[in-house]
Amino acid sequence: MGIVSQAITEIEDTGSMLPGFLPAAQTVNHQIQLAAALLDKRIATARSFPRSIARFKGEATELLKTDIDTARSAEYAKPVGGGKVVGPSVRLAELVAMCWQNLDITVEEPVATEKTVSAKASAWDLQRNLRQEAVVTTSILNKNGNRYPQHLIETAGMACQAKARRNAILAVIPRAYINDLLEVAREVVKGNQEPLEVTRKKMLEFFSRSYKVSEEQICKALDVAGVDDITQKGIDDLRLIANGLKEGEPLEAFFEPQTTSRLDGVKQKIQDRRGKGGDKPAEKKPADKPPESPTEQPGGGKLFGDGPEKTDMDAIRR
């Protein structure tokens, strides 16, 4: 009986192999090719459906006019030197990015060092093939030079991410369009203003409730003598400061620390209430008189209240 030998032929077929089983160099090349193909597809789609500037302006303007809160949050203030500068906010950047279309936005994870935390973002106009990057860095040291706790560092990192995304978006979209939308937002805010007294009260309550800022601190920040001297311009400045605080600006950059402690404030309130007669000492009630002792009758008997007369034993015997 003859022996049958079979030859095994090895065929290299790397094209049908899964990426996980490919060599490292081929896996990297394969991923690069997939990313490039995906990007080419997105650019082709963006150019097939180009944006309309008129439609962009109309949609963004309509959103600002429809929601008063969106219009109020379109602008913020940032402390610079001894004053402050005003600019478009994170909320406005989100609105224009949605209406601009064909925009690719990426935000990297924040990086923390011993003294600072930073974040990087990029915005890519796929239709125009224009890409801009922005990096934002902020300190994570308090006024005493001590490093923030971990949860505050994470908060500062998220604030850096939001600011970097805003800066990247605003670098891609022409600033002339942004300025036009800011004017629309200002007009909407002016047209929906409440009476000055009501707006002033709401603003003071907001800062007291949200940031523990006293009326004295607000008056110092606005350089006015008292609350009644806060005008509409002061209300507008406080609104810009509030938007700046929401975007991560430090509180001490706008308001001076409070000079009196909380205990002193409580003591002052108690004194004020006493001065107005709110806390009068309780009046002392006259002490109850002891019950009167029973009176004696001429015969030696005693009369208890209004009850019947009682005699002693000698009177009975008699």
Q: Please, how many helices?
A: 11
- If classified by CATH, what would the architecture of one domain be? 2-Layer Sandwich
Structural class comes to: alpha+beta
CATH names the topology of one domain as: Enolase-like, domain 1
Characterize the biggest β-sheet: 4 strands, antiparallel
Percent range for helical residues?
40-55%
Segments where pLDDT lies below 50 for 5+ residues? 293-313
The share of residues in extended strands comes to 5-15%
Summarize, please.
48% of the residues lie in helices and 14% in strands. With 318 residues, it is α+β, with helices and mostly antiparallel strands.
Structural account:
This protein is an alpha+beta fold. Among the domains are: 55-189, Enolase-like, domain 1 (2-Layer Sandwich), CATH 3.30.390; 194-264, no CATH class. The protein has eleven helices and eight strands. The chain has helices at residues 24-48, 53-66, 68-72, 90-100, 150-172, 175-191, 196-211, 215-222, 232-246, 262-275, 313-317; strands at 75-80, 83-88, 103-107, 111-112, 116-125, 130-139, 295-296, 302-303. Strands 3, 4, 5 and 6 form a four-stranded antiparallel sheet that branches. The protein starts with 23 loop residues before the first helix and ends with a helix.
